[in-house]
Write a structure and sequence with these properties.
By secondary structure, the protein is mainly α. It contains seven helices and no strands. It has helices at 7-18, 23-34, 39-52, 57-71, 80-94, 99-135, 139-144.
Length: 146
Amino acid sequence: MSWIETEDDFEYEEKIIRSPYELKPWWLYVSAKRGTASPSVVNLLFERALKALPGSYKLWWNYLQERVKQVRDYPLDSPVWDNVNHVFERSLVTMHKMPRIWLGMFNLHKLTRFRLLFIFNETKTRNKDKKNIRSCSTITTCNSTR
């Protein structure tokens, strides 16, 4: 069990073992780990909690917010954004009637779409510059044809 790092973790794990289908022990554990543990440990804990309680809006919403917060500083062309999108899609399997999750996914898609447009425009600009360079064999030849 690599996610157990301190003595407090044992206490939280015991509470979860006693009542795995209650929100309170999971939420207390996640809240305790959120500020102190690495993002991968927090994500693993959220995933375990959601496996036991897939219908918990509170867990899903906070997990989605946590994932978005974790990737906010990554560049727009990073694949971690696709991982966040995948988590949003998984949440909609059980939370499809929750408008806040739909709005969160819409905002993510809006940002992702902006990301794709940004990448497309950047690529188009680079290729346009290359095309102008390739269309002339040398700079002097292009200048002499005018």
